[in-house]
Amino acid sequence: MFELIDANVAKHISLTPSELDLFHSMLHLKKLKKKQFLLQGGEVCHFSGFITKGCIKNYILDDKGHEFIMYFAVEDWWVGDISSFFEQKPGTLFIETIEDTELLMLDYHNSEKLFKEIPKFERHFRILIQRSMSTLQQRFFQTLAKPAEERYLEFLKKYPNVAQRVPQQLIASYIGVTPEFLSKVRHKLVKKV
Length: 193
Description:
This protein has helices at 3-10, 17-25, 82-87, 108-117, 120-145, 148-158, 168-175, 179-192; strands at residues 27-32, 37-39, 47-53, 55-61, 67-74, 78-79, 94-97, 101-107. With 193 residues, the protein is α+β, with helices and mostly antiparallel strands. Helix 6 crosses helix 7 (168-175) and helix 7 (168-175) crosses helix 8 (179-192). The chain is globular, with a radius of gyration of 18 Å.
């Protein structure tokens, strides 16, 4: 059950067997069905979740209820609302499953305990947060500066296994176009090949 998360952590820090045991004792398995919420806007995020199976979308809603997908997350990804989690204040992010999903959950209090008892975990999570911020910054720049065709190609590059797992309207939301416009972009790309 812990092989994938252990490999993820081992990319950044080395743990002793006793440290791994302590880490494992702080995790709990959560299973969600397709279209279930892990978090909704207005709630405080009390967790960091590591996906061992499934696919999740992370999005915000505008005042008319339209979804704007921030990112997708699949196996070997961490999910949560970073600012809500660390500030323990209500956030705006919605986290919803696209497929049946299993996660290993680390709650806020256990994460604080983990940082205190195994300080090198602060390094692991700092690296994750830095990468997340970098990814979101690049996504922001991409949305502002690149045409839809380039945004779609970047999506395919970033999420090579997700395009077949999520409906076209979610991909359209991610790149900031309508599903109809995405169909035109895809058709145009097929003609180029």
